[in-house]
Amino acid sequence: MSIKEQLIQKVNNKTKPLGSLGILEDIAIQIGEIQQTLSPELKDPVILVFAGDHGLTEENVSFFPKEVTFQMVMNFLNGGAAINVFCKQNNIDIKVIDAGVDYDFKNMPGLIHSKVGFCTKNMLKEPAMSYEECILAMKKGATLVQNEFNNQSNVIGFGEMGIGNTSAAALLMSKFTKQEIENCVGPGTGLDAKGVNHKTQVLKKVAKKYKNLETPLDILSAMGGFEIAMMTGAMLEAAKLKMTLLIDGFIATSALLSAQALNPEIVKNCIFCHQSMEPGHQEMLKHFGVKAILNNGLRLGEGTGAALAYPLILAAVNFLNEMASFDDAGVSNA
Q1: Among 61, 123, 153, 241, which residue has the fewest nearby CB atoms (within 10 Å)?
Q2: pTM surpassing 0.90?
């Protein structure tokens, strides 16, 4: 009997009607499979928040100016953002990473300094990153995950901050899922209908410019971001280390699209924490053939959906380990 079959049997023998714990049963079985055990544990959860700026903001594709990226990084470091609140509430460690913010943080304490560059290039004019920069970002992401693994963590979430990154995510989504740009573009941080239309027209030009790109790394280099590339490398490493990956919203899922193109098996390690209000995210989830745990109208990013879903993920593991079986409780299963 395979480990999955044993896990299903264990879940079905708990003192409850078959299937009555819904998605929690699926999560329990999935994490047991990842860890190859009937008694999985979640140890030292951490959310890595990657920050980077985007040259494409020169084309007015975002509601907020680029300066908000470094301002929000400072907010993260001061503990004042939503992700800080939710991580504190749920006993999740948070690490903030400068992947490529257009600001010199010098030796700012509390920040992980992994800057690849101060900002990606304007991809309407030239590729966002060089191939070498993309590889470097991915390697840095992998190292960060390895560090958390070495510190005994086996469950890791991915968040981001970067004005303009919904544009990069929409382009990656269009390329990797073979959908028209119109199906991938949304308001981001608050564009009105006119702004969304302008953003769509800009992204159509970018997509046309790079229409002949085929390999995942060429696509990620041309149309991604430093924080997305770093997240991609981090996800690939986390899966390699048999960690449980907590996938947040639209931007994080675009990084996963890149990672999946390089490792099709990675989805087995992924728990999709919430469905973003950004229109393209629902289509991304359909592409992966999954349903998210939460659908609460969130569209903040930062890893907030992962932090909010974590108590339910923990509940799935706890019921598998601690809930009585019919035999234990002397309850009839006839």
Answers
A1: 241
A2: yes
